[in-house]
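Table S5 (text form). Sequence records supplied for joint modeling of the two-component complex.
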Amino acid sequence: MNTVAFTLFAVIVLLTLGITYWASKRTQTTTDFYAAGRSISGWQNGIAISGDYMSAASFLGIAGLIALNGFDGFLYSVGWLVAYLVVLIVVAEPLRNTGRYTLADMLAYRLKAKPVRSAAALSTISISTFYMIAQLVGAGGIIKLLLGLQYEVAIILIGVLMILYVAFGGMLATTWVQIVKAVLLMTGTILLSLLVLSHFGFSIVEMFNQVSAQYGQSFLEPGKLYKNPLDNISLGLALLAGTAGLPHILIRFYTVPNAKEARTSVAWAMVIIGSFYIMTTFLGFGAALLVGQEKIKAADKAGNMAAPLLADALGGNFFLAFISAVAFATILAVVAGLVISAAGAFAHDFYSNVLRGGQVTEREQIRVAKWASIIVGVVSIILALLAKEQNVAFLVALAFAVAASANLPVIVFSLFWKRFNTAGAVSGILTGLISSILLVLVSPNLMEPDQALFPLKNPAILSVPLGMLGAILGTLLSREPEAERKFTELYVRSQTGIGAE
Amino acid sequence: MKTGSHNTDWEQIARSPEFRTLMKRKRRFMIWSVAFFSLYYFALPVLTGYFRFLNTPVFGSMNGAYLFALSQFFMAWVLAFLYIRHANRMDRLIEEIICKRKEKAS
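The corresponding structure-token record, covering 607 residues in total, follows.
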């Protein structure tokens, strides 16, 4: 075992537990637990959003994809940033103006609370679970490679930590874990990029020339990883429309005091996320040139070790240990965000508002939320242990596809379409959710490529229109005067913030 | 909900000329920007997937495909900057609407 890595790893664990202890003393009300008491400022929330969003898949996965497949790896990076324009321009501010803790709050504003909250809780929990299993399985593998810990030990360690952060520290602890992680990740990535560039006289063109000389010009051209352009377009749609429907990102807008701060936080997040994803070029091509594809593939077939091996090659053992610790912190921050979004959907939407019709005291709701986060955490640990040998990359694609097909159309219709009603929201969420899951089940992700009934790896290109169609048909087949009457209230409030908490 | 939504006349605000101007300007920005970035964004997989001309090297080995992908980042930043500027102007309109309500109330 690498002792420097182990020390840094322990420092991160102690630091985040310290944050949790500090936050637990400040977490008394439901607003504290779900929304950090709305005490987070715009720029802090911006950093936390980046910390929540830049998962291990981005940091380790993209660097590996670029190192092994060249240009095509970079396509993901583009989608992950441009998607924030949808978040910024369409959803962030209206959502902050009309909700309290979860996505369903906005929907329940003018629609019937019970059916809408149940459907939204179902899609939130599904998305969080798909995303979380993918993160945990990836995490187990990576920590095993980096620290030599057994897969099972790594999963249980991360799982216990994430339960502690969320159950005791609530959203405040989760937010600060995300901020710490984002700062560490950016520091590590900037250092690595500068070291890579120094090898090429700080000339990006020179780096590209050497890539071309060693791997051929075709390595810099598209088509190596994705043979079917439609697959690319479908993935692009899932990323673009899915980000604005990801529940763990949406709940971050409730931690700031008002819509203006929500806007500021997306702007900050876009600066950080954009700079990070541009630097994936240096990490990826740097690893291809300075480590070599043979060595990267020997360590891990999928390329996940490209960035750590690059750190080892450029800065020796200490730098390798630092990058490993960053990867560990990354996983902790992302899974904590997922646990709190799933626990909120269960405790706030399903338990308090559906089962108990809103007749729950503050103390009881917090207790249920804490228990929900423990249960969500334990269930995902078990699922991740069972999924040990699975290739789970498709789960992340599925999470984005469900968010794009089930959540985004319903959010947009609810905010801008007067005629939209409860039947439309429920059928929209269910059609989007079921169609994206079914299409993935019969796709090349899980079937032999030549036998797959649906030829694309990502279902968004079909499931997003289906989700929209479900929402439109459900709306047109029933009338709900109450929802239409309350539309004006939601519309004025969402756009001006008048009456918002 | 501290301000209490019961005593707010939402219909009246919605009908006011100030709110209509606000929504006209908000919508115009939203529709044009969403149309623009969607076209720009999907141009990348379409142009690199179905055509080959972006593979031409531009600076040394750096080709058009990479430069176009890179330009997406700057497109997103510039559009976000324009949106923030626009939204800050909308904030001033919203403040006027709120001031007028208070005048009427008092």
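Note: Chain A touches chain B through 57 residues (CB under 8 Å).
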